[in-house]
Amino acid sequence: MIEWLSRNRNTLVPLGLLLLSLIVLSRNSMIRHRNDISSSHFARGITASASYIQRGITFSITGIRDLGRNYIFLTGLREENLRLQKQIALLTMENLGLNEQAIENERLKRLLEFKDTVSYRLVPAQVIAGDLSATSKVIYINKGRKDGLKPGMAVVTYEGIIGQVLDEPGRPLSRSSAPVLLILDRMSHADVMIQRSRERGVIHGRPESQDLELLYMESLADIKIGDVAITTGMGSVYPKGLKVGTITSVEYVPGALSPKVKVEPGVEFFRLEETLIIFPEEENP
Amino acid sequence: MSRNYLFLVLVGIVVLVLQTTVWKELSDLETLVFHTSLLTKFRPDLIFALVVLIGLFRDPIHGAIMAFGLGYLQDVVLGETMGIYMTDRMIVFILAHSLTRWFMATSSTNQFVCALGLGVVDKLALLLLVGFFGGGFSSLVSGLHFRFFEVLINAGLVTVMYIPLSWVPGLFQEPTGIERRQF
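Predict the joint structure of the above. Result:
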């Protein structure tokens, strides 16, 4: 028997191991729930060893892959970044333009509303240039003789009066543009009254201080800070009822015939962009 | 001899780890770069290639023990029903060893053809074993066309793995002619 086994061991050993594996397989397949099986220490040792190696390999491969990914795809990201930056710059410019249009729209709406409230004819014009030096306060608008403008016509805005159209040597009234002498200029004056108390006086420009002076008031005139000065319609330049400015100071000087009254103009001249020209009823542009 | 056993156990663990890590990373890379998931559909079997080589170049007793051990390792690491890969590897080993009496195992072409045939047997054996003892036939029947590619890949792996392993002194015993090796 032993001799037979020894003689045929080349065949018996492989077949024996095959049989053993089938027995093991049959036994394990009969167990229904996996958690009923407890692994041997050897099996646990094998899986533990394998898991350490698996972790090491996975960590290395992940590191290499992330390095490659960060490098390779970073070039694509850089181009994408540049493209997006350009797009942002374009959109910012577009946004600025849209904001500007919105502000202009609001301004024009107010001009239109003002135009609808008055009985005389108003023609809009844009400010194209300005000479707001200390000695001279003149702006230029984009309407001229061809539009029917004549010297002396009043130029206003919904905030108040601006000035009148000029025509003089050095500042001629041309076909397509016109100089406008602002009420801030020392040569400007207008007949006004206090809206509240109906006290009358004459407004005079003070270019050095960017405001106006109210002259020829009675010594006991009822004037307060905050009162609004409006045009009287006298002098055939400015129609009645247009805002000139707001009283900012009243100083009574002993012995003087009139109080010293300062008026802040209703119009912000340094931010002026659109104006309205008053056409008398008989004039057609 | 114990050195050879130890070497094969280590090689077995290494190839099993490589199968479960590197292949997975390659699959992820394929998905990332090519947006396809072909590699996830099949899995090369390095242990199969090792067992075929043991069957072709080892003696029946030690070779059988080695194949049995590698099958056990595969069962432990892969978490299948214990005994499936043990049985399958024993079948592959016995058949591979039987074929050595009819052809020269050192030829790459012979190795490839032999591995192809054994690969088909391996897949059928796994199908039957899993079907009867494991989770049923459905999990293996689906994706049969990918099993065909696996057979081809595994056959190629046999010829590829033979080259470096043949340099290990004493591991593989090259048979002379087609005579049956005597132990």
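The longest helix of chain A spans residues 41-117.
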